[in-house]
Amino acid sequence: MTLEEQLAQLQNDYAQLEAKAASQAALIAQLIERIQTLEARLSQDSHNSSKPPSSDGFKRSPKKRSLRKSSGKKPGGQPGHEGQALKQSENPDTVIAHLPTTCEKCQTDLTKEAALPHFEPRQVFELPTQLKLHVTEHRTYSKKCPTCQTVTKAKFPQSVKNWVQYGPGFRALAVYLITYQLLPYARVCELLNEIYSESLSPGSLVNMIAECYEQLAEPEKTIKTALTQAKVLHCDETGLYVEGKRHWLHVASTPHLTHYAHHLRRGSKATDEIGILPAFQGAAIHDGWSNYLRYACTHGLCNAHHLRELAFVYEQLKQAWAAEFTTLLVDLKEEVEVARARSETSLSSARLAHFEERYQQLIAQGLAANPPPQGGWPCGKRGKPRQSKPKNLLDRLDKQRHQVLLFAYRFDVPFDNNLAERDIRMVKVQQKVSGCFRSQEGASFFCRIRGYLSTMKKQGENLLVALLDTFCGQPPLPKLLV
Q1: Best-predicted range by mean pLDDT among 10-19, 107-116, 158-167, 224-233?
Q2: In this structure, what DSSP letter does residue 425 have?
Q3: pLDDT tens digits, residue range 333-376?
Q4: What is the DSSP letter of 272?
Q5: Strand order in the sheet with 232-242
Q6: Can you tell me the mean pLDDT for 79-108?
Q7: How far apart are CA 238 and CA 292, in angstroms?
Q8: What angle do CA 387, 308, 241 make, to 5 degrees?
Q9: 172 and which of 253, 288, 301, 468 could share a cystine (Cβ 3.0–4.6 Å)?
């Protein structure tokens, strides 16, 4: 073999090795990305992602830290706090007199002596000795007219429709236990049987729920109308299982109003049919999902979501800009709260400019640390390459910075969307306790009644009294507090 042939052979071998090395480098890069993805998935919990706290398990992670600063106050009630201790009643139901029988000094018999007018009272609050349902029998009699001899029979009250039925108070208690305390139907039957010795079937409870649902149609319309007129509206959605299929629960709320609705879809088809967001003109606070952004109202993003994502970037990927950005948002939130406490309506132009400059500097640092991906998908996949989580977060913080900082420009806008998340949390608890809804009607019943009870609770009303009035045919309308 000549030198030229040997050189050609070596060049060919080198080209093959170079191609193999490039292929192995690409494979190593894919494996590293895969490992990072799996590690990131395992390291995510409620403090650095949108996962609920219930997914964390029982092991408390030492890396979790609160962003709240210590107030310096001791735990418990503060000085000047009005307590809620049990107070004596001015009109006790039963009085038991305890009289001394002998003198404690000389043992003289005191049984025939009159008691002195002064006494020391102590009261015990206890359940009645026997809990039983109060049965009222309605009797209709007939009378014969002395003039025309016609026999006229009296009519039962409109609320008394059956030979035997439960009264409005009992029905209100049953619906309250199911829709507010979230007890399953079987356990409500068991509880009421234990207390009142009354055999109650789940079918009877379903009828009570359906009756309450029909009575609350008008209050629900009032709630929806008031929500469309609110200045600030909190929106969120979560999965809901109905008839074994995944549906979506949509919530729209304010500090005084709550509306729930379930739908097979998550997006605009659902929110359009619900009808609140299409008519809303105020500021909608949400997690930045694209479906909300299509509505022509002012938008504010939930910064609690951003703080969790920033915690992930700093703790797992060790990017310092994320910790500084967290400090920026927390500092700005505290400054807004201090200004609001002084009855101010906005921050000064100089302070806003200061925070906006820091904001821009940190965005630039983050983008420098997270450049956009180069090239296309590996293994022949088409389309744009997938961006990293930090890059997606930075793009949102950069392009939607006004929506991120809306709480600093408008003091009536909150820092986060925690109100909607709290409103939605108990419905998730209901799913964990009782499983999915077995029918579309059952899900609709629950959403309307739960939304009404949440609204009345926010407005300081007694829920059992509200349900009692509902079963009496006069459900209290919510106050139009927006």
Answers
A1: 224-233
A2: H
A3: 999 999 999 998 889 999 999 999 999 999 999 999 998 877 55
A4: H
A5: 258-263, 245-253, 232-242, 283-286, 298-301
A6: 85
A7: 14
A8: 85
A9: 468
> Is residue 73's pLDDT more than 90?
no
Collapsing DSSP to helix, strand or coil, 310 comes out as: helix
70: Cα separation from own chain's centroid: 26
CA distance 339 to 133: 56
Q: Does the pLDDT of residue 145 top 60, yes or no?
A: yes
Tokens of 268: 């605009």
**How far apart are alpha carbons 399 and 267 in whole angstroms?**
22
Of 274, 283, 276, the C-alpha closest to 247 is: 274
Q: How far is CA 120 from the centre of its chain?
A: 48
What are the strands, taking DSSP E only, across 4-53?
none
What pLDDT shows up at residue 373?
A: 78
The two three-digit tokens of residue 211, written as one number: 């009756």
Q: Which residues of 86-110 are buried (b: 16+ CB within 10 A; e: fewer)?
A: eeeeeeeeeeeeeeeeeeeeeeeee
The pair of structure tokens assigned to 121 is 């009272």
CB-based contact 230:482 (threshold 8 Å): yes
Helix (H) or strand (E) holding 298, with range, is strand 298-301
Give kind and range of the element (H or E) at residue 300: strand 298-301
Question: What residues form DSSP beta bridges with 153?
Answer: 142
Q: What is the pLDDT of residue 460?
A: 93
Residue where the block lists tokens 């109100």: 419
C-alpha distances (whole Å) from 199 to each of 110, 136, 209, 468 are 53, 18, 18, 21
Dist CA 277 CA 257 (whole Å): 15
Decide which of 12 and 423 is more confident.
Answer: 423
Q: In the structure encoding, which two tokens stand for residue 15, read together? A: 């080209």
Asked whether the predicted pLDDT for residue 74 surpasses 90, the reply is no
Q: Which of 196, 211, 209 is nearest to 159 (CA)?
A: 211
pTM for the structure as a whole: 0.82
pLDDT of 54 > 60? The answer is no
Distance (Å, rounded) from C-alpha 173 to C-alpha 181?
10
Exposed / middle / buried, residue 244 (Cβ in 10 Å: 0-12, 13-18, 19+): exposed
Amino acid at 274: I
